[in-house]
Amino acid sequence: xxxxxxxxxxxxxxxxxxxxxxxxxxxxxxxxxxxxxxxxxxxxxxxxxxxxxxxxxxxxxxxxxxxxxxxxxxxxxxxxxxxxxxxxxxxxxxxxxxxxxxxxxxxxxxxxxxxx
Length: 116
Description:
The chain has helices at about 5-15, 20-30, 55-75, 75-85, 95-100, 105-115; strands at about 35, 40-45, 50. With about 120 residues, it is mainly alpha-helical.
């Protein structure tokens, strides 16, 4: 998995711009999935792509997993820095409801890429 870095997680916490968050997430997910003719295709372990029926569910769940795994993947020191600097706000990036705030911009990134 292509994790978010410390600096990218800080941007996810601090940014007021949904498009900025969507671009960060898209940059991490674009190699593992793509849209073609309004259908989501997800990379399998063998490198091939398979269709996935519910693109909204999959993209939101994968985004949530990416953010959580990225935070866990940080060093304990970096995790503590974030917790101390943003004691209330850092927790707000994890729920699916937070992802919903920039989902339209995120899905637009996939649509733009599918047009190329």
